[in-house]
Write a structure and sequence with these properties.
By secondary structure, this protein is of the alpha+beta class. The protein has four helices and four strands, in the order αβαββααβ.
Length: about 140
């Protein structure tokens, strides 16, 4: 839970810093993982994500904005998350059903994206959890 708060704070700060906002009805889908590697490898993993995953996401899921964030604080030095922001539930539902399974369009997009995600996971560490949030929540 503490990691979630840190990650959420980082995302909100990033939005403020770059003039972006989370719109009402927007969906934030967070994948968090832990890695135990040196700082050099951390930088390589972040660069891999930026150069390989984000361009694929932009191409095959244009309704989503993909980000990578690193945990801060002593307890979160090896924590990372990918955050996927959809402007609406309709945008998310084009690619994922309510139970989290991909739609036909989502399956096609994942077929293009997942080989690079799996390559990254094998090289740097796998996903630990998947969380889904909406800005409509009170």
């Amino acid at each position: 839970m503490r990691k979630l708060v840190v990650i959420s704070a980082l995302l909100l700060f990033a939005g403020i810093a770059f003039g972006q906002t989370l719109n009402k009805g927007g969906i934030l889908w967070v994948h968090e993982w832990q890695i135990n590697v040196d700082d050099d490898t951390v930088k390589q993993m972040q660069e891999y994500w930026k150069k390989n995953i984000i361009p694929l996401a932009n191409k095959f899921i244009p309704e989503a904005e993909a980000y990578i964030v690193k945990g801060i604080g002593a307890d979160n030095q090896n924590a990372f998350a990918s955050a996927w922001y959809y402007k609406s539930m309709d945008d998310l539902r084009k690619y994922f059903n309510e139970d989290g399974t991909p739609t036909e369009a989502g399956g096609a997009a994942l077929a293009e994206i997942m080989p690079k995600v799996e390559e990254m996971g094998a090289k740097f560490g796998g996903f630990k959890t998947c969380l889904l949030y909406t800005s409509d929540a009170a």
